[in-house]
Amino acid sequence: MLSIDPTKKISFSRHICEGDLVIVYERHDNMKAVKVSQESVLQNRFGVFKHSDWIGKPFGSKVFSNKGGFIYLLAPTPELWTLVLSHRTQILYIADISFVIMYLEIVPGCLVLESGTGSGSLTTSLARAVAPTGHVYTFDFHEERAASAREDFEKTGISSLVTVGVRDIQGEGFPDEFSGLADSVFLDLPQPWLAIPSAGKMLKPDGVLCSFSPCIEQVQRACDSLRSNFTDLRTFEVLLRTYEVRDEGNLGSLPGKKRQRSSKGSIVLENSSSPIVMARPCSEAKGHTGYLTFARLKCLSL
Questions:
Q1: Per-residue pLDDT tens for 180-201?
Q2: 87 and 70: one domain?
Q3: What is the pTM of this model?
Q4: 250 lies in a domain?
Q5: What is the pLDDT of residues 149-182, one digit of tens each?
Q6: Residue 196 to residues 185, 190, 229, 235: CA-CA distances in angstroms?
Q7: Is 16 part of a structural domain of the chain?
Q8: How far apart are the first and last CA of the chain?
Q9: Is residue 56 located within the same domain as residue 177?
Q10: Which long-range contacts (CB under 8 A, 24 or more apart) does 206-209 make?
Q11: Domain that holds residue 261
């Protein structure tokens, strides 16, 4: 779990203890969150792993099963938690999350308002960004979903940085107690234009708002609402493309070219005395997730 010291940033520089949450890494596409218990075991295709062998080891340790297979015990960072959490709703992934935190200008000490909480993927990263002195107030209209999010924040050790509220932000707006106090506001709502007037009241002068929408029609209506009190409107679609880079074997005596691009976009580096190194786009490239619209609250001149 996250270790928070008021004088330091979030850290994982400690050993695994009874009751901790760890990310069990089998391979890059197979990870799971496991709560450590002295009497428990983990069974998978690599064998049986005793939790008691994990206690006292530092995060990042490689541990072995009774069959000699191994796994890695990783700290539940926001990036890894995003990959293993339960999907109660569609979630934001790392590419969008990093973009949001940068363009919302979130730094330690910020007060951030979020609606809706959903599965808590973004909330976890927001909490780390504002730590140790900031706070995230996140709202969801669904009571059971909000309760599940609270449990997850307890598991990952960020409950002191996050407050989860049950509220229909589209219908009621944000609570008046935050008026003029928020550094940033994030909206993930089906009708964000209904919440934009309230969000504007919550922001400090020059504060930044971000609205996430999967459909461009939602973006258009949100922008119409933003233009009255906001400036510097910008909308982005973040597309992520990863590559596989691997050794394809030695060419032997075949004379080769230094660089060659195939019709499918793969890049081959060849040399008569070196192996072929193949680089090509992954077949499961992630496509569209949604649109991110940013706007800055206008500063009224005195």
A1: 999 999 999 999 999 999 999 9
A2: no
A3: 0.81
A4: yes
A5: 999 999 888 999 999 999 999 999 999 999 999 9
A6: 10, 12, 9, 16
A7: no
A8: 48
A9: no
A10: 206/296, 206/297, 206/299, 207/182, 207/183, 207/296, 207/297, 208/103, 208/104, 208/105, 208/183, 208/184, 208/294, 208/295, 208/296, 208/297, 209/184, 209/185, 209/294, 209/295, 209/296, 209/297
A11: 243-281
